[in-house]
Amino acid sequence: MRPELILFDEVTSALDPETVGEVLTVIRELTEEGMTCLLVTHEMRFAEEISDRVYFTENGRIVEHGSAEQIFQRPTSERTAEFLRHALGESGRRQAPVGDPFLLSNISRYSLSV
Questions:
Q1: Belongs to which family (predicted)?
Q2: Helical (H) or strand (E) element with 88
Q3: Element (H, E) at 102
Q4: Which of 19, 63, 87, 105 is 20 to 30 A removed from 56 (C-alpha atoms)?
Q5: Is the separation of the CB atoms in 10 and 42 below 8 Å?
Q6: How far apart are CA 114 and CA 109, in angstroms?
């Protein structure tokens, strides 16, 4: 069975760091094989690395969306910029998750997250 789309909704939220790495490796491999994945996550470094498109949501509404480069390097929403500062820290190191998740999708592949 080969679905056209796989949805990952906070699949790493309750996992230990080693298992998180294993899950992210599987997701990366699926996208490299051309699988469309929709991912809701607080793993911002991974999101930046793997995503074609990023949607930042707050209270169920899309605050900002664009390419991964645009969202992570040049966010236009102060709320998005604030979230990234907290999530990544000023030094760029990952901090504890806060705020609402990003909804990530790949334009050439489908990914779904609920």
A1: Belongs to the ABC transporter superfamily.
A2: helix 78-88
A3: strand 102-105
A4: 19
A5: yes
A6: 17
Give the chain's domains with CATH numbers.
Answer: 5-112 (3.40.50.300)
Cα separation of 78 and 61, whole Å?
Answer: 15
Q: What amino acid is encoded at 9 in this protein? A: D
pTM over 0.70: no
Name the token pair of 44.
């911002």
| Residue 11 CA to its chain's centroid (Å) | 11
Contacts of 7 (CB under 8 A, 6+ apart): 37, 38, 111, 112, 113, 114
